[in-house]
Write a structure and sequence with these properties.
There is one protein chain. This protein has 7 helices and 10 strands. Strands 6-7-8-3-9-10 form a 6-stranded mixed β-sheet, sandwiched between helices. A 4-stranded antiparallel β-sheet has the order 2-1-4-5, covered by helices on one side. The radius of gyration is 17 Å and the shape is globular. Helix 3 crosses helix 4, helix 3 packs parallel to helix 5 and helix 4 crosses helix 5. With 227 residues, it is of the alpha/beta class. Strand 7, helix 6 and strand 8 form a beta-alpha-beta unit. The protein binds adenosine-5'-diphosphate (ADP) (2 copies). The site of one adenosine-5'-diphosphate has 11 residues, from helix 4. InterPro entries: AAA+_ATPase, ABC_transporter-like_ATP-bd, ABC_transporter-like_CS, ABC_transpr_LolD-like, MacB-like_ATP-bd, P-loop_NTPase. Keywords: ATP-binding, Cell membrane, Membrane, Nucleotide-binding, Transport. This is ATP-binding cassette domain-containing protein. GO terms for molecular function: ATP binding.
Length: 227
């Protein structure tokens, strides 16, 4: 369970990225953050990941105030999260497989276990045949699918995806949507920012942000379990 209580984020020049945001997201929900560019979507996602601190208000995760976490505790928080954030590209000096293995190696998993899980994760995204390729040899859509495999390889409880369909064509967008829905069906909370209508159609919950404020929040009657 994620809870924002009167969260604001102000920057030095008095720009508010978020203004008095209160919301809660239950375990296993598939939530879309909608709204125009500059609305505060990235800031909200980065706060859940502990990458930004609120100027005021609190962000709770499973009863813990994550804005008060010491730097040393952040790695434990991050292990629960699969992050697909802007500007976190693949490492170009190693193979697709090595990229996806990396989060497991970082937490001290054995190389053989990391490889097994990385291959399974790539298989889920239909990218196993490119395991040995360089990321440079992949299309934008393929790179995004590898980034998702890397985000889910540690079996996170929560997936945070910032505009995961940016620069993707329709077919690749559908692959990405279906992959995220499949994770939600297996109990993972998914929070996805997008202004893509195709995503909104699949939402069982939409939170609409504008100028840093929650303007609307609705729960869809459309079941997210049909794919
Ligand atoms: P979105 O993801 O919806 O496009 P962002 O969360 O990236 O929105 O940005 C929300 C607002 O906060 C924007 O007006 C943006 O310019 C501003 N902003 C974001 N990061 C910074 C920063 N580091 N310094 C100053 N302003 C920022
Ligand atoms: P396996 O369970 O044999 O690893 P799966 O096809 O069930 O294979 O999963 C593929 C990969 O997706 C897993 O290795 C795992 O790292 C990742 N994954 C992330 N979250 C989940 C989840 N909730 N359920 C199953 N797999 C998940």
């Amino acid at each position: 369970m994620i809870e924002f209580q009167h969260v604001s984020k102000a920057y030095a020049n008095d720009v508010y990225a978020l203004r008095d945001v209160s919301l809660s997201i239950g375990d296993g929900e598939l939530v879309f953050l909608a709204g125009p560019s500059g609305a505060g979507k990235s800031t909200l996602l980065r706060m859940i990941a502990g990458l930004e601190k609120p100027s005021s208000g609190t962000v709770m995760m499973n009863g813990q105030n994550i804005s008060k976490l010491k730097a040393g505790s952040l790695p434990y928080l991050r292990r629960k999260l699969g992050l697909i954030l802007q500007g976190q590209g693949l490492l170009l000096d190693r193979s697709v497989l090595a990229n996806v293995m990396l989060p497991m190696i970082v937490v001290g998993e054995s190389v053989s276990e990391a490889e097994t899980r990385a291959r399974a994760a790539l298989d889920r995204l239909n990218m196993l045949d490119k395991a040995n390729a360089s990321p440079l040899a992949l299309s934008g859509g393929e790179q995004q699918r590898v980034a998702i495999a890397r985000a889910i390889v540690n079996r996170p409880q929560i997936i945070l995806a910032d505009e995961p369909s940016a620069y993707l064509d329709r077919d690749n967008t559908i692959i990405v949507i279906n992959a995220l829905k499949a994770f939600q069906r297996s109990g993972v909370t998914c929070i996805i920012s997008s202004h893509d209508e195709q995503f909104l159609d699949q939402a069982n919950r939409v939170i609409y942000l504008s100028k840093g404020e929650v303007k609307d929040s609705w729960t869809s009657s459309v079941s997210s379990t049909n794919s």
